[in-house]
Specification:
InterPro entries: AAA+_ATPase, P-loop_NTPase, Signal_recog_part_SRP54_M_sf, Signal_recog_particl_SRP54_hlx, Signal_recog_particle_SRP54_M, SRP, SRP54, SRP54_GTPase_dom
Distance between the termini: 25 Å
Number of helices: 20
Subunit structure: Part of the signal recognition particle protein translocation system, which is composed of SRP and FtsY.
Strand content: 5-15%
Largest sheet: 8 strands, mixed
Oligomer: single chain
GO biological process, one term: SRP-dependent cotranslational protein targeting to membrane
GO molecular function, one term: GTP binding
Structural class: alpha/beta
Catalytic activity: GTP + H2O = GDP + phosphate + H(+)
Number of domains: 3
CATH class of the largest domain: Alpha Beta
Bound molecules: guanosine-5'-diphosphate
């Protein structure tokens, strides 16, 4: 999961101070020593860490904390605020030209995920903003880049404009924009060439494309897993070309988070989107406040709710919510919910957005293997209605009957019942936590 290492360390550190009724300078100093180490270990830029520690320390021993009734929680809020500010404060929106099409130039080094992200972004624009983008293949150097974009276009049902690899990228960009006007596309996404390293020829060419295409946005795609290298790449591209926003890819594999936490502070460039997987829907708008909450284990319910709204049947969701509340969740609901959760994305990612999720040890045992869903369905369908509603009546002979009926083994039946019980336990914990939070009044 993204930021796992950093999140674990920061949460453990903050846990110690959270419950304190009194916070003195020594407490803050000790906490900040650990926060500083956690950030450095996460490969955050040294100067950024220094500034961050200074700001948080000043506020944490200031009046807003001392006068508060819950100083421990107030310190956590300060860390949360400053972490949000560090990553850019407000979420920054994508430009819309008042003379369509809006032109977006995608730039970046080879392998950063530029072509993949061009497809993801087009998908995002259509899904979230009902836009009709045209993709333009202007990476004429990387073998197969044009083909890759065409394949993505076909897969997602987007038109792809290309002129082969013998025409200059400037000409391709120009023609793509003319074509977009003609066919009333509101966005043109130009996939430009990358190189393995930054060099003058690359920059010169990109500058020429920029001059001709007059893009409304130039998005730099960088690989989060390269840490401070990504920050350096962003600085160089920005100096040469003037970037309007960064898209950070492969955050799903980045347990450290150094790039995400340094880019804005070092370069002044906002992170606009993050890539969280290879699939075409694995792109999320970057919300610094939500990301800070996720890192501090305060959950990211907003993103989860947005995801749920776009992929879950609302009536069913309401129904399920009620069942979770009064604990009348059955095996039939389990089956139904598995299908819906699957639509939300990889389960560990979804769970990572729940407040305190990584503190719940039981969660690690709740695994849903996508290939197993068919087997699970067969097992549940072999249960009687009574058994689905009251799994506790399923004794050894019933297990054998269910196993036989579904063509699965008794072990599998056992495993499923165990998973179901774990899930019920998790719901109980969650509703307990939410009630607890209400009582304490939270800290926001
Ligand atoms: P380009 O050379 O910059 O155009 O890079 P590609 O778009 O071909 O991507 C390089 C590799 O990175 C491909 O295997 C992509 O599937 C993968 N990739 C891109 N974005 C992500 C992401 O957000 N997460 C993961 N895990 N892989 C990604």
């Amino acid at each position: 999961m993204a930021f796992e290492g950093l999140a674990d360390r920061l949460q453990n550190t903050l846990q110690k101070i959270r419950g304190k009724g009194k916070v003195n300078e020594a407490d803050v100093k000790e906490m900040m020593r650990e926060v500083r180490l956690a950030l450095l270990e996460a490969d955050v830029n040294f100067k950024v860490v220094k500034d961050f520690v200074k700001k948080v320390s000043e506020r944490a021993v200031g009046q807003e904390v001392l006068k508060s009734l819950t100083p421990g929680q107030q310190v956590v809020k300060v860390v949360n605020d400053e972490l949000t500010a560090l990553m850019g404060g407000e979420q920054s929106k994508i430009a819309v030209s008042n003379k369509p099409p809006t032109v977006i130039m995608m730039v970046g080094l080879q392998g950063a995920g530029k072509t993949t992200t061009t497809g993801k972004l087009a998908n995002h624009l259509r899904k979230k903003q009902n836009r009709k983008p045209l993709l333009a293949a202007a990476d004429i150097y990387r073998p197969a880049a044009i083909k890759q974009l065409e394949t993505l276009g076909k897969q997602l049902d987007f038109p792809v404009f290309q002129m082969g690899d013998q025409v200059s990228p400037v000409k391709i960009a120009e023609s793509a924009i003319a074509k977009a006007k003609e066919e009333h596309h509101d966005y043109v996404l130009i996939d430009t060439a990358g190189r393995l390293h930054i060099d003058e020829t690359l920059m010169d060419e990109l500058k020429q494309v920029k001059e001709t295409a007059k893009p409304d946005e130039i998005f730099l795609v960088v690989d989060a897993m390269t840490g401070q290298d990504a920050v350096n790449v962003a600085e160089s591209f920005n100096e040469a070309l003037g970037i309007t926003g960064v898209i950070l890819t492969k955050l799903d594999g980045d347990t450290r988070g150094g790039a995400a936490l340094s880019i804005k502070a070092v370069t002044g460039l906002p992170i606009k989107f993050v890539g969280l997987g290879e699939k075409m829907d694995a792109l999320e708008a970057f919300h610094p406040d939500r990301m800070a909450s996720r890192i501090l284990g305060m959950g990211d319910m907003l993103t989860l709710i947005e995801k749920a709204q776009s992929s879950v049947d609302e009536d069913k969701a309401r129904d399920l919510q009620k069942k979770m509340r009064d604990m009348s969740f059955t095996f039939d609901d389990f089956l139904d919910q598995m299908g819906q959760v699957r639509n939300l994305g990889p389960l560990d990612e979804v769970l990572g957005m729940l407040p305190g999720a990584n503190k719940m040890k039981g969660l690690k045992n709740v695994q849903i293997d996508e290939k197993q869903i068919g087997h699970v369905e067969a097992i549940i369908r072999s249960m009687t209605l009574n058994e689905r509603e009251q799994p506790e009546i399923i004794n050894a002979s019933r297990k054998r009957r269910i196993a036989k009926g579904s063509g699965r083994s008794v072990q599998e039946v056992n495993r499923l019942i165990k998973q179901f019980e774990d899930m019920k336990k998790m719901m109980k914990q969650m509703s307990g936590m939410m009630n607890g939070k209400k009582k304490k009044g939270g800290f926001k």
